[in-house]
Give the backbone structure.
Amino acid sequence: NQVRLTNVAVVRLTKGGKRFEVACYKNKIVDYRTGKEQNMDEVLQIDNVFTNVSKGILANKKDMKKIFGIDDETLIIQEILKSGQVQISEKERDAYYENVWREVANFVSEKCVNPSNNRRYTPDMIRQAMKMAEFSAHPTRSVKQQFLDCVKLLIAKDVLPIERAKMHLRIQVDASNDDIQLYNESIDYVKSIGAVVVKGEGAANEDNWRCIDLHLCPSHYRDVDQFCNKNDGKARLEVVQVCVIEEGDAGLEMDMSRRFVIAKQQSDTVSGADTGNEMGDVDDVTRRMKNELKVEGEEGSMYDDIPTSSRKNAKKDKKKSKKAKRREKEEEAERHERKQKELARQEERALRLISEKESIASPQSSIMQVEASNAGNDEKLSSCNTCGGSFTKIQYRAHFRSDWHRYNLKLKMAGAPAVSEEEFKLSDIDFF
């Protein structure tokens, strides 16, 4: 009987000049190496060692004992799984790296912000910035590790302004002994590591704890946790919000208030108690923020430096070019039509001037007029709506077969005025 293997991933190990392979499931080999999957039956498609899985050639047991030094085939398979190389196709490798790229970009978009407005970037902006910074995905490292490397690379290359979103933490200090020394030490410590104290209550609450709310970079979370743990339960740490990010539409008042708070906090860290003298009153700071925003609006938006998706821009430019071409064709057709009408009007005017100056009478037309006047008393006359004039019944039929009438019909279809019989005979028919 022939056993067909589907959804197979080959793990290959070359040792002692021999090649050994095992057949595994694609979605289980990574879990086994990271420790998520311990059951070998869930990882292996068949519990045999091959020299060539695709051809179904089994490995020689004497060679395995000579090279690995053991008889147990299960232990040999475990060594191949841990030390072997996974054989995947080029399309699978590209799909894997694309998936890692997407996960890292989404992670950066969720955990990082623009420091100027404390708002997230879209995943497309992050992906474009990663390309500009030449970020390369690693096949074995976790997404979180690659996320940290990506943030460091973006900051080092200065592709776009970015930083990790602050955490909102709350330190609760025991106030049962009315001792504020630990409370003051906690505030001094968090300020020394760059934290921003949002709210500090010197007085104890109902549970007899003093609370300190602060915004802190996630990289210093363990330091604060260790500081609280070493105080024998007199201080405890609570995570209020994992990522402090501005949500909703950005407004002028919101931006001004946020900048005012940042400027005040920076001045507090630099000058301490002399903050009021250096910053001035609130009106002065607000006026300065308005001027700063006005200058930014004149020079350009803060998002001008942010790269956008080149694929979307190319599609947009392609659509614009099609619309422009169609518009140019329509305008060209309108110009050509106006030019033809102008030429027709000029020709009509020239013919009328010639007829008025020379006033050459046509014998046929005079005969037709005389006959029409003689027959007017006996027979009813008919007129042509295209050429004009009055004709008897016989002349009316002959007129519709004449070149003059046919020419006026062509002029009427082209939108030009009809010509008289004198103008028709004086004009050069080939010219028209």
Observations:
- The chain has 17 helices and 13 strands.
